[in-house]
Amino acid sequence: MDNNSEQYYLSRALERIETLFNRGASDNWTTYDFEKLSEAIFDRTQVRLSVTTLKRIWGKLKYDSAPTLTTLNTLAQFAGFVDWRDFKQNEDRPAEAPETSTVTPRPQRKQKHLGITLAGALILIAGVYFLFSDRHKTQYDPSRFEFSTNKMIGEGVPNSVIFHYTAKVKPDSLFIVQTWDIRRKILVSADKHEHSTIYYYPGFFRTKLIADDQVMKRHDVWITSNGWLCLLEEEPIPIYFKKELCQKNGIVEVNDTLLAPYRHSAIAQRVRFFNQRDLGDLMNDNFTFETKVKNDFDDGTNACHYAQVLIQCKDDIIIIPLAARSCVGNLNFYFCGAGAESKFTDLSGFGCDLTQWTSLRVVTMNKMATIYVNNKRAYTLTFPNTPTGIVGVQYRFNGAAAVKETRFMAKGKVWEMD
């Protein structure tokens, strides 16, 4: 392969991303793996690359066109570079592991002949110690840094956020991390004081100011949805539906009429509902959640009626899958550090007829959670992660779908999501 070709650089970028993503060889990736990669890329870059786009790039789906520059820039940013041009110029730069990451270095093959004398080895060890010992690393005083944020609008998306920062000392590098993921960091100038970005999706983001590899300041950015938000997931900017068109008579719905302009596009199957707001002291270790969902879209490509209900937390996530009973063999479930795959676990309780209204109920007491589908127990677990606050819900459907009667309950309080 020509080392100057775009295909060469793309293959190098994909190799680096596979190493950072740490889910084994991409030859064995399933749709779930690509979904997780899509989420990881969004968390770091705030750009949503769809599962379909990622599958095309990795050669899982046939596609004759080359990736767009936006897609290439996003891949490069996820890999730790400013953009695609920066990656092509510096692609041999070592990959940076995140602050708290699941990335595991690949084992190095043993050399048959070390070719290093004892004296040489001692010199090498001393040199490595000198380079990497904390004694030779500048330790910065957090009080010498300032960090704050300012949202342009109180609620809703898109929402621009201005990051204000001051570095009274000049580190070698200064980064702003715009989400909880330390890998999603933007290089900023220590001589300047502002950086801005646009958040296109609601979320609770733990942002950081990092001098070299040291976290100096933290600041939470909470992008709420201003009630129910209905959209089609698209890159880089989603397609938003007006609230009065998708919320009527207590039902949140994206129907065939709203999808008609996009009927021949893949984005018509990426329907998303959000409702994120201040839920006070509601915690994920003791709560009850109720909702009813429906997904009657079926043009021949949606026979399984896959759907996901996500309960979003400040430091965690709950992902509950639903599907036609005939398709429960390909489900993935996640609850605050506890996960299960249908390949290894019986998740048949999440099978249902989503062409009819389907009720979902989650009851959690002291970190022990039981999920009910149509009033039948689907799964029970005890989650391991530290309890944290709940900030809202998200739904993911293929095609036309609807939601109603959504609420949280805890300690005698009821939060109606309306």
Blueprint of the fold:
Elements: H1 6-21, H2 31-45, H3 51-57, H4 69-78, H5 84-90, H6 118-132, E1 145-151, E2 159-167, E3 174-177, E4 185-188, E5 194-199, E6 203-211, E7 214-223, E8 229-232, E9 239-241, H7 243-246, E10 247-248, E11 251-254, H8 256-259, E12 271-276, E13 287-294, E14 307-313, E15 317-322, E16 332-335, E17 338-341, E18 358-365, E19 368-373, E20 376-382, E21 390-397, E22 401-410, E23 413-416
Antiparallel strand pairs: 1-2, 2-5, 3-4, 3-6, 6-7, 8-9, 8-12, 10-11, 11-22, 12-21, 13-18, 13-22, 14-15, 14-21, 15-16, 16-17, 18-19, 19-20, 22-23
Helix pairs in contact: 1-4, 2-4, 4-5
TL;DR?
The protein is of the alpha+beta class and 418 residues long.
Considering the chains and any ligands shown, give keywords for the structure.
23 strands; Immunoglobulin-like; 3 domains; eight-stranded antiparallel β-sheet; alpha+beta; Jelly Rolls
- How many domains make up the 3D coordinates? 3
Weakly predicted, low-confidence segments: 95-126, 128-135
The assigned CATH architecture of the largest domain is Sandwich
Strand order of the largest sheet: 9-8-12-21-14-15-16-17
Quaternary status: single chain
Broad shape: globular
Number of strands: 23
Structural class, by secondary structure, is: alpha+beta
Content of β-strand = 25-35%
**Major sheet characteristics:** 8 strands, antiparallel
Specify the helix fraction band.
10-25%
Radius of gyration: 23 Å
Mean pLDDT: 85
- Using the coordinates shown, work out and report the CATH topology of the largest domain: Jelly Rolls
